[in-house]
Structure formats: C-alpha cells, structure tokens
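in:
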C-alpha cells in the first residue's frame, strides 16, 4: 500500500489485514521504526500465535499499539504526569510507555506482569490498520526471535513466510531502530531500552530520568525482559572494534591470513579505508539517523554474503548513538575489542 494514500482506512489491503486481526490471526505491518507482527491484544488465542510465529520466549511481553489517545484509558489504571507530558511531546512516535495495566489486554501480552507497554506509532499505514481493526494491536518486531528486526517487507518474508497470515507492505521504515521504552510507573521515569527518541529529547520534556542499570553495567538483570536475550545477531560472529583504522585493518588481515572471509561494517565516510572481503557502509557517521535507518539491513547483508566474521566500527554513545551501540553490542554478544 502507498502510505501517502488519503483514504487508508478503507484501502482494501488494509481492510483485509484488519479482518485477519479480527479473526485472531497475525499480520505484519510497517511502523516508523521497524515492521511489527500484529494481533488482537484482547485475545489469548491471537497472542499465542505471535509467540509461536516468532519462536519468542513466553516471558517476554509485547508492546500494545493504539491509534488514538482515547484508547489508552481503557487499558491502564492511571496516567502519570510524566507520561502525559511525554505523550504530548512524542506521540505518535517511537516512544513506548510502561503503565500499570488494568488487565484488559490478554495476560499473554504482558507475560503476566502488572504493567503494560503502550505506544502510538507514527506511520499512516499502522494507524489506519489499528483503526480499521477496532482493537488495540499487540506487536513485537516482525523477525524470528534473535534475528535483526525487519525494516522492509522482504526482511519479514525472509523470516516469517508460511508462519503468518500476511504482510502489509508499506515500503521501508524510516527510523530503523525500535522505539525507546520508558517506565513511567516510577519516579523518576526509567529508560529500559534506548531507541528512536533520545534520552536528551526526553529530558528536555520531563527533566532528569534514570537509565536501567542493566544497560550500562554487566551482571545486572534488566527490568525489560526482552533486553536479556541475544538479539539482532547476524549468522557470523560480530566484533565491535574501538580504535584507529590501522588497528581495525590489522585485525582484518590476521583473520584473512587464516583463510577466513571477513566482513566489515563501516560508514560512507570510512568504507574506502579498509581492505576486506565484504564491506558494508551503514549510513553516514555525520548523521546518525542514517546509521540507525540502515543498521538492520546492513547486518542482514552479511548473512547473504556468508562471511565468517564481521568487524564493526563503534559509534559515540550520545543521542541516537545510544540505541545504535545498544543494538550492535547485542548483535556482538558484548564482544568489544579496544585498541
Ligand atoms: O519500535 C518498536 O517498539 C517495535 C514496533 C513494531 O513497534 N516493536 C518492538 O517490540 O520492538 P519488541 O517486542 O521487539 O520489543 C518490546 C520490548 C521488549 O524488550 C519487552 O521486554 C519490552 O518492550 N516490554 C514490553 N512490555 C513490557 C513491560 N510491561 N515492562 C517492561 N518491558 C516491557
Ligand atoms: Mg524485537
């Protein structure tokens, strides 16, 4: 579907997808971050199908997507002031807010927690689909569990063909990394997952926030169940390299000398500086939005090339760089080499 279509809610493809959701089946759809795998958040039967299609551990709760703010009060016990302000500033948009649940959504959505994660996506196709379905739509990223999240319909097809009722193809997503998850049930609010809305942007609206310790310290259990799993991983091992181009090149050369096919994740600015078997440029370092946008497609590109090992440049941990480094670290299983 064309996301610029004026009458998306009556678009036949969106109508068909909404019908599947009403029949408690699962369909993939685009959001501004990544493709989601949507199902009726009120139905145990529908939600079970999401976990099954993705191979997702059942203790990892889902985000509920809404199209209008009026849907929110039906799902939560209360709306804290911090959440009010964040919604006014960032919804629709890549910010997921954790509320106390009033247990309207299926307990499978919340994986038995007393809280529920809610967001209003900033994508006309997603909003039209939720509206046409007439129910809140639970949706994790539409990838097989552990794989990089899908940023176009092809990625979804690659992972989930034959496992879901269909995909609404709305072209490539824009933001490229998932929404920021923030817990507004405590004061100050706590960022559980860095994402499309930066900590700096959030603090400009509600003042200082906390960041889940598990994001910065080893050995801490994350407050967001999903953050404990290895994720975003390409097939080959990935290593983040923090150092000069020469340092990186030495690592590449050593692996190539032992007969390995070596991939490098670089940027448009730096891609000419390396000699390796496969070099993928992931956006412009100067503009981290382009790096976030291309990150998962770049990671998936190495699977097609069947490399044996991947070395990746690192990024500054400020602004969108926090989300980018968080995803790269997960893809690398924490493997970082410093010069
Ligand atoms: O951008 C996004 O957020 C995408 C699109 C499709 O909206 N969705 C997405 O969903 O990334 P998923 O399931 O891949 O990630 C949801 C994250 C997980 O880390 C999960 O543990 C966390 O949100 N989460 C969900 N409900 C929670 C809750 N009640 N408390 C804490 N964390 C929660
Ligand atoms: Mg995911």
């Amino acid at each position: 579907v064309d996301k610029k279509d004026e009458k998306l809610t009556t678009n036949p493809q969106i109508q068909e997808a909404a019908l599947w959701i009403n029949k408690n089946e699962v369909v993939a759809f685009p959001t501004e971050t990544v493709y989601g795998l949507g199902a009726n958040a009120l139905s145990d039967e529908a939600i079970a199908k999401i976990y099954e299609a993705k191979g997702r551990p059942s203790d990892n709760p889902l985000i509920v997507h809404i199209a209008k703010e009026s849907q929110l009060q039906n799902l939560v016990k209360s709306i804290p002031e911090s959440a009010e302000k964040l919604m006014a500033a960032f919804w629709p948009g890549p910010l997921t807010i954790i509320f106390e649940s009033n247990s309207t959504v299926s307990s499978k959505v919340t994986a038995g927690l007393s809280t529920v994660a809610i967001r209003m996506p900033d994508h006309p196709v997603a909003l039209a689909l939720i509206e046409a379905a007439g129910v809140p739509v639970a949706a994790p990223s539409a990838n097989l569990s552990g794989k990089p999240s899908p940023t176009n319909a092809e990625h979804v097809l690659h992972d989930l063909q034959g496992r879901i009722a269909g995909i609404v193809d709305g072209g490539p997503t824009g933001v490229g990394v998932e929404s920021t998850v923030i817990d507004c049930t405590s004061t100050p609010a706590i960022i559980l997952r860095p994402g499309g809305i930066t900590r700096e942007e959030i603090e400009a609206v509600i003042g200082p926030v906390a960041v889940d310790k598990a994001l910065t310290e080893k050995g801490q259990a994350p407050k967001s169940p999903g953050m404990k799993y290895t994720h975003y991983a390409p097939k080959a091992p990935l290593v983040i390299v923090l150092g000069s181009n020469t340092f990186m090149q030495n690592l590449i050369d050593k692996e190539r000398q032992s007969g390995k096919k070596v991939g490098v994740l670089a940027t448009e600015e730096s891609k000419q500086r390396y000699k390796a078997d496969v070099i993928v440029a992931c956006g412009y370092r100067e503009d981290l939005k382009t790096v976030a946008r291309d990150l998962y497609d770049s990671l998936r590109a190495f699977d097609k090339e069947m490399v044996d090992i991947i070395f990746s440049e690192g990024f500054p941990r400020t602004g969108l760089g926090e989300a980018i480094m968080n995803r790269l670290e997960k893809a690398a299983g924490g493997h970082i080499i410093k010069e």
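note: The pocket of magnesium ion (ligand 2) is lined by residues 140-141, 149 (CB under 6 Å).
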